[in-house]
Amino acid sequence: MSESKNHPTSTEVGAHTAGELVHADRFPDPGVPEHKPRLTDTDPKAAKRSERIITILFVLSALGTLGTLVAYFAVRPDGTTEGVRLSTVLLGVAMAVSLLGIGVAAIHWAKTLMSNHEYIDERHPTPSSPEVREVAVVALQQGVEDAGLARRGVLKGAAVGALALFPLTVAVPLISSVGNDWNVGKFRHTLWKKGVRLATDPDGRPLKASDLTVGSIAHIIPDVPAEERETEEWITEKAKAIVLLVRLNPEDIRSEQREGASYEGIVAYSKVCTHVGCPVALYEQQTHHLLCPCHQSTFDIADGAKVVFGPARRPLPQLPITVDDEGYLVAEDDFSEPIGPSFWERLK
């Protein structure tokens, strides 16, 4: 079937399109939109008001940095939950003021005082000619003049001061921690030892085997005297010793890390994930799986807490348990191996 003379062929359409591209310079250049001046461009009082606002924001940032240092040195965590919470909140609020002051001031400066003229910068082969470089230098100088750096000394001083002080919020804590104790061997041992009773977290109530039914779980800490729980070291030691206790049917237990480490189907495993140390506390009753909420590492507590999914590479350490003469659950020893993530001095 022959093509109609009234319709162009695909080749003709392609050639026509190519011709349009070649002669695209025939279309008029829309140019730069008309510049609309801001209030600060036409009203000196508005410009001065914006300058004061920006200066105040930079000063607030500097005060926030100083507040961070005060909070870091004056409100140290005292080992209690309330003390840690207060220190964290003060540090966070002060650092937020420091960062937000710089950020909001920079945005407000750019929107109200810096030049907002639009310019066309034609592309040229590199390197640029000396004439173009000279024009670029002039443009940069003009930009500096438009930003008002030379005639706004107070604002410039506030900005430099805020930016110069802010790194102290990070540098001072890092420098002051150089002398901290980095003895990772402390992870080899916890508060658990032979005869220490298992107590519920956080009320510290000793737990009997009869208190648990099949399928029930309990969050466990060592039963220590009340006065010890008030010491500064208690939070650190408690964090290493936290345990999840689960009662299974004895016949469901396929393996343990130590022979006889459970008691009548009750098993106890460290809650500190062996990946990066997050608390493992999500229990799935039907599969006997423990899930770490941070990175989804999954452990089978019916099979020695072996890893069945996720980035963890080691089972959760098991706490060997039994009961004392009064029927209370007690530890027979410390964990079967060091708790938490692997470290360079770990033997296994």
UniProtKB/TrEMBL annotation:
SUPFAM superfamilies, A to Z: ISP domain
Keyword terms of this UniProt record: 2Fe-2S, Cell membrane, Disulfide bond, Electron transport, Iron, Iron-sulfur, Membrane, Metal-binding, Oxidoreductase, Respiratory chain, Transmembrane, Transmembrane helix, Transport
Cofactor: [2Fe-2S] cluster
Domain of life, source organism: Bacteria
A GO CC term attached to the entry: plasma membrane
Region (Disordered): 1-46
Domain spans labelled Rieske: 266-330
Bias kind Basic and acidic residues: ranges: 22-46
Residue ranges the record marks as coiled coil: none
Family matches, as Pfam families: QcrA_N, Rieske
Location of this chain's protein in the cell: Cell membrane
Single Gene Ontology MF annotation: oxidoreductase activity, acting on paired donors, with incorporation or reduction of molecular oxygen
Protease found in the keyword field: no
CDD domains for the chain: Rieske
Leader peptide range in chain numbering: none
Bilayer-crossing regions: 53-75, 87-110
Membrane topology: Multi-pass membrane protein
Role summary: Iron-sulfur subunit of the cytochrome bc1 complex, an essential component of the respiratory electron transport chain required for ATP synthesis. The bc1 complex catalyzes the oxidation of menaquinol and the reduction of cytochrome c in the respiratory chain. The bc1 complex operates through a Q-cycle mechanism that couples electron transfer to generation of the proton gradient that drives ATP synthesis.
Family, similarity comment: Belongs to the Rieske iron-sulfur protein family.
Name under which the protein is recorded: Cytochrome bc1 complex Rieske iron-sulfur subunit
